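chain below, 229 aa
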Amino acid sequence: MKIKKTVLLLFVAGAFQSFSFAQSGPKQFWLFVTHTQKINDRFNILADVQSRSEQNLNQINTLLLRTALAYNINDQHSIALGYAYKGDWPDGEEYEYEHRIYQQYQYEFKIKRIEVQLRGRFEQRFLQDSGTHLAMRARGFAAVQFPIYANEDFTTGLFAGLQNELFLNVLNRQYANGHLFDQNRPYVSIGYRFSEKIETSFDYGLMADQGEEQNTFNNVFRISLTTNF
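prediction:
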């Protein structure tokens, strides 16, 4: 239990550090749909879609498609192998794309009625804008969801959430942004769980994004839909 609390405190500290540098940076509007499809007690198919728009909502600037095959070690631990495709349409610039292969470990548990998710992901990124060079990135994610007004077993009801994800370039960073640090994405959320299979939330995040020359902060407004069948 001490290890769990230490990991959570580190991620929460990172989140509040980013929020403490909040400024009137660019706004982004994201739609995030994620789905888990059970095959049997051991295997799931994971899939998610993200669309991202910047200041005006009449244009999609980024589309991310991701899928994976997950193996459930037990009720709390799982591993996955997946693929992702990311396409970018920067304003006034040529279309850019990226292929990713990734490996993932996920650990889910509860502290009383609070739901906790910890996830580590290792990505092999094939970056088209750098001549299809290979770069590798590590991602660490932590999230908590706690009921505000819900039934006793938290299968339906209103909830709030906190999450943070840290991105580090661990190999061939010269093909990414040239730095070890890549991104930090803390979010606060308010949502509603319709059943054990469907929930949605409105999320606000302050994304710290390390460029080649400077670090920028983006205000992210996100609508999330999560399904599990």
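The longest strand covers residues 133-150. The mean pLDDT is 89.
thats it, cya
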